[in-house]
Design a protein that fits this description.
Elements (H helix, E strand, L loop, with lengths): L4 E6 L8 E6 H70 L5 H5 L4 H4 L10 H4 L9 E4 L15 E4 L5 E3 L4 E9 L3 E9 L2 E8 L1 E2 L6 E2 L4 E4 L10 E8 L2 E3 L1 H4 L14
Antiparallel strand pairs: 1-2, 3-4, 4-12, 5-11, 6-7, 6-10, 7-8, 8-12, 9-11, 12-13
Length: about 260
């Protein structure tokens, strides 16, 4: 016959009164059963989810590698796009279709009686001297942006969408189209090695081979391409090297929001 209760005695070493406790057999039985169930459930849980945790860790590593490779490919594709644009720019600027050398060889009527001198582009008009828009600078040359984690070849000028964009100097449009990164983009060749870029436009008013005058409206401020809001991405290139537009327009330093220490 099984006992219904068990007695637990506590006997101290100092000969003080001993203590005893009675524990029912059913309580002990249920306690052992409960702990056994908990251990079985815990072992089963670990047996099921430990492989899943390991699988998740492996998948995360593969995803990180894939994301890193994808960013590298995206960066290479953007560099290739940039090279292709510059290649087209150089080919068109040096090709026979522009015939810029002939236009620049025309001289003032005071000197030789040529009444068609206005078609030529003077040296002063080649230098970017008119701000394309009025606004606040939010990104400078060389800084990295939100989406594009690499060098920045110009400045970003925040303005209201639809504001007119002016040609910073006289020249010939050699590119006017949409690109993945810059959205609606216009590139103007000004001779003497100068190029200016106007990007993220809402609408381009000029097409390739159009001649533009300094201060002429060529587009509207927009938010196309890889852009976080309405602004103009403005670049100045000299001899195929980007230069800082703030050197040509120091007035923008008074509206510089980048808080960059000089």
């Amino acid at each position: 016959m099984r006992p219904e209760k068990y007695t637990l005695m506590l006997i101290p070493d100092n000969e003080s009164e001993s203590k005893s406790f009675q524990i029912s057999a059913s309580l002990i039985k249920y306690t052992v059963l409960t702990f056994s169930i908990i251990i079985i459930v815990l072992v089963g849980y670990l047996g099921v989810y430990i492989p899943k945790i390991s699988e998740y860790t492996n998948l995360k590593k593969k995803y990180d590698i894939f994301a890193s490779e994808r960013l590298s490919v995206l960066e290479l594709s953007r560099k290739l796009e940039r090279i292709n644009q510059m290649d087209k720019l150089v080919r068109k600027s040096l090709g026979s279709t522009l015939n810029l050398d002939d236009a620049a060889s025309q001289r003032d009527s005071i000197l030789d009686g040529d009444l068609n001198f206005k078609k030529s582009i003077s040296y002063i008009e080649n230098i970017p001297s008119i701000p394309p828009i009025q606004g606040f600078v939010t990104q400078r040359l060389g800084e990295k942006g939100v989406f594009i984690r690499r060098g920045h070849h110009g400045i970003d000028i925040v303005a209201k969408e639809g504001e007119p964009i002016l040609a910073s100097a006289s020249g010939v449009v050699i590119f006017s189209d949409w690109t993945y990164r810059y959205g609606n983009l216009i590139i103007i060749y000004h001779r003497d090695g100068y190029f200016t870029h106007y990007a993220h436009n809402k609408e381009n008013f000029k097409v390739s081979l159009d001649q533009v005058e300094r201060g002429e409206v060529i587009a509207l401020v927009g938010n196309t391409g890889s852009s976080t809001g309405p602004h103009l991405h403005f670049e100045i290139w000299r001899d195929f090297t980007p230069v800082d537009p703030l050197d040509y327009f120091p007035g923008f330093t008074l509206k510089d929001l980048t808080l960059r220490d000089e």
